[in-house]
Specification:
It contains four helices and no strands. It is mostly helical. The chain has one domain. The relative contact order is 0.11.
């Protein structure tokens, strides 16, 4: 049995450490529902951490950066 909360935080930590192998290994054997839970949980955990660490004064900068990434990805451009 997988503890989705522990897996989610472990996935975020591995990703922040730029350790793709550990991040992917945490997803091995998860079903599609569990993968969706990890994806949602990881996104919310990272957003909460960024808001708490960076504060409101940097939130708009982070949002603009993410919007730039999305635009570049959707148009085939570079970041």
């Amino acid at each position: 049995m997988t503890d989705i909360n522990v897996t989610t935080y472990g996935f975020v930590v591995a990703a922040l450490r730029d350790n793709d192998d550990d991040a992917w290994s945490l997803l091995d054997g998860l079903d599609s529902n569990e993968l969706a839970q990890v994806a949602l949980g990881a996104t919310l955990a990272l957003a909460t951490a960024l808001r708490g660490y960076c504060g409101a004064e940097h939130t708009d900068d982070i949002i603009r950066t993410l919007q730039g990434f999305a635009l570049a990805d959707s148009t085939g451009g570079t970041r």
